[in-house]
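re the bet — no i am not wrong, look at it urself. input seq straight from the record:
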Amino acid sequence: MSQFQVTSYTDTFKIYELIEESTSSRILVCPERGGIVIGCQLNGLEVFYLDKATFEHPTANIRGGNPILFPICGQLENKTYIWDGKSYEMANHGVARTSAWEVVSTNTDGEASITIVLRSNEQTKESYPFDFEVTFTYALVNGELHIRQQYRNLTDTASMPFYAGFHPYFNADSKNLAYETDATTYLDYNDMVEKPYTGELDLDGMVESVTLLGAKKREIAFPVSGGARVRMTYDDIFKYVQVWSVQDKPFVCVEPWMAMTGELNRQEELVMVEAGSTLSANLTISCER
């Protein structure tokens, strides 16, 4: 039997399971619930938090796993933006996390992987008037989860604005954690004050998130439940990391974003993909025990 396997089963929705036996690792993917990874066991330790009830409810926002944020991260004032003189409404974090993705292929040659795609449709165009194709490959190899992304603009003439990101929920025993990053400051959305980053963040009592600023290295590491450390590495296009939690819930969210919340209204750091072009990006999650 190959050390790499891809299987599927039904648990309310169809779940694809990527398995690497040699590292006791497995990834659980649900394409029809926003293409989300709901389970991430690396080197024998489950690092993702999941509120199962929110996953099982077909229209609830999933509290847990790793929601995909596209074409925006965060929120828009009044959930509204104007593009080419027309006003559009878009829900927080965009359209990808509430859309059903299609399975393109699976692979067990040298890795356990699944490739899924989201294409624009009438529903997405109500919020985001662009023809697009977003393709993700989730690959499990050497005890690491690699998320290979392609953002393709299928529009004939217009450039496509977006800023994608991720919203992973990590199991955590504390809200006061030391984050290994070269960020120098952070913007505290609880009081809108930029503050020096001194090596740790205490989210206890915070309602809103914070955004780490000034990082040159595109990686961050931090402790998770089980006495391990998670490390995320990502491409340069992910300029910011958002950190957030909820009081009395055993998780922290550490979220690589391409731009800060509200960017579709500011339009200062938008990622623009020319007509017919594709932007590729990568994110890797590993667990150090």
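see?? The first strand starts at residue 4 and ends at 11. told u. also The chain has one domain: 70-288. so pay up
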